[in-house]
Amino acid sequence: MMRSLFSGVSGLRTHQTRMDVIGNNIANVNTTAFKAKQMNFSDMLYQTTQAATGANAANGTGGTNPRQIGLGVKAAAINTTITQEGANQSTGNPFDLKISGEAFFVVSDGTSTYYTRDGSFDVDDAGNLCMASTGYIVQGWGVDNEGRIVKGTVGPINTRTSNEYAADATQNAQIAGIIDRDDVALQTENGKIVNFEVYDSAGYAYNMKFGILPKTREVTTVRETLNTENEWGPSATIYKVDTSKLTYTEDGTGRKLTATDMPQELLDKLENAVRTAVNGGTAAPGITVTPGHNMGDAGEWATVDMKAFIDGDPDLAGKVLENGDLYNMTLKVNFSGGTGFVKSQPTSFPVTDAVTIPEEAIEAFYDAGTTNTDGTITYNFKAATGSVTSIKQTYTDDDGKTVTKYQFKDANGTVIQADNGTGTMVDAGTVYGEAIMKLLNLGKKSDTVNPYTTQTEMTESQVVDKEYTLKLLGLTSSDGKEINIDALTNNGGASWDLMFNKSDGSFSYVGTEGQSSITVALNSINTDGNFSNLTIDLSDTSNVGNDHKSTVEGKRLDGTKVGKLLGVSVGTDGIVTASYSNGHITTLGQICVAKFANAMGLENSGDNLYQTTASSGDAALVDIKAEGIGSITSGILEMSNVDLSQQFTDMITTQRGFQANSRTITVSDTLLEELINLKR
Description:
Blueprint: H1 3-27, E1 37-43, E2 46-50, E3 67-70, E4 73-80, E5 88-90, E6 97-100, E7 104-108, E8 113-116, E9 121-123, E10 129-131, E11 137-141, E12 155-156, E13 164-165, E14 172-178, E15 192-199, E16 205-233, E17 237-242, E18 246-250, E19 256-257, H2 264-278, E20 287-289, E21 299-305, H3 306-311, E22 330-335, E23 339-342, H4 359-365, E24 370-371, E25 377-380, E26 388-396, E27 402-409, E28 426-427, H5 434-440, E29 444-449, E30 452-477, H6 486-489, E31 495-500, E32 507-510, E33 517-520, E34 534-537, E35 541-542, E36 553-556, E37 563-570, E38 575-580, E39 585-591, E40 593-595, E41 603-606, E42 609-611, E43 620-622, E44 631-634, E45 636-638, H7 644-676
Parallel strand pairs: 14-34, 14-35
Antiparallel strand pairs: 1-4, 2-3, 5-45, 6-44, 7-8, 7-11, 7-40, 9-10, 11-12, 11-39, 13-37, 14-36, 15-16, 16-26, 16-29, 16-30, 17-23, 17-25, 18-19, 18-22, 20-21, 21-22, 24-25, 26-27, 27-28, 30-31, 31-32, 33-34, 37-38, 38-39, 40-43, 41-42
């Protein structure tokens, strides 16, 4: 038989195999992460009809080449294009993952381990991350009790976690920024205010308030002072009144009513009745007061049923209103906020001639107030038949500035104590300075003015450069309730020295030398043990010029409220985390990947799975980011890397090759037929 027949048959068989490979590639053109295969040909054994000979010098002949006849073709190799990535397909599913690089996901059916590029994963009823197609569980590393990845034995990645993240008490905070010595806020009673939020272990928020004040020292000098003594006859009784502007809004529509919307008689009665009810007096019919109001607070504090209010007043009932619709309205009443003092009890509202005076000044001259039925508060002068002498001293300080101080004496000549609890002179501008002069002006001033100049020994408070006091002022819950911090602050006296370098104003220490932070013993407050001690770092503060403005601010560094689970996600390094509404992120595990010495040596197992072979070598399980071999992308799948244009081109060449080999068989058959016909 002719060798060409068998060569043609081998060609047909080999091209058929190649067509099988091409057909499989095309069939999997949309298979997730499918890797196309390529088939290579090689020639088969050769029959040698004459061996090669070398040159013969004795005979003078040259050598001859071997004479060999090939016996056909065979499939040399079928390789998988492992290193060629497929295109990206966005899915939006956080558990659809794509690997860039040559690594593989590791999955297990509980008995055997497989490797795949197909990252279309899902979560089963046990919380395990698994293949959506087979249910095989994705493998990786777990975490220890502190949430750290433990890269030991691999196991299932479980996404089950709590739907809530427990609250954490704040333990660390920071006060940072510039303290400008020329900031006017530093000259106020509590200095530059610094607020920041802290949490207790139950997740409740509190506002912590500090004040930063310049440190002062008492310096005694002899000054030439101009003294002026005035005698006053303060009002025996004064009244605290609400000076808020009332706004009436129609319930349901939100329309604001103006003075033209109701008769003046009705407006006056409504004004007085609402203020009386809101400020503690008897509520007229139809008026409902919102609880929690204090005199002078701004907000919506009353609701008025106009029908009930009008019918309940004999002077209004039965009268024809200018606006008939008003009778059936329900009004919401808003207070703008504000209080003042007058010397005669008002008969109508609003009070426009009230004097604004700090209540600390009132306490120096008047007894504790009593609330009247109309909501006003009456204060009685401690010595109603007496008088008050004010001694005003004016002098020039070392900086050339004019300084004014006051001292007050009662009718017996006894010095009335100032805001520092002593009878010393007090500065103008404090609550006991110009504010008290406003208070005294509510009474009668004498005509006696006795100016005189004298040399007076003055004790002055001078600011110490680069030295401040940090003072805890209070702790307030989110609903505005003041927390009693007496146990913590020894009746409000908790303070720390804050020092800066004299040369450049950089931070030096707080509390004691060498310290950059303070510890506030919040756990000593009796709030069911919910607080933790709070460490506040101040090392990032400085005392330098900043256009007379301080930028110092407070910030909590930890502690959270209770968090709700927002979702589970996978990072580019394969770390699986749960995110909560309070900002906490819990690590659940890390997906490991496998790399191989020869990934093309892996054996296909179906279902987009591979198994190791002697050619591929054993899998090395690694951290994809740490090894620098690629990354994992969430919400994206790898598509098939089959190139249809290449496959159709290969199909054409395969078809032509098959045809050519069939022609070889046909021609060989014709030759054999001619040979058989020789015997005829």
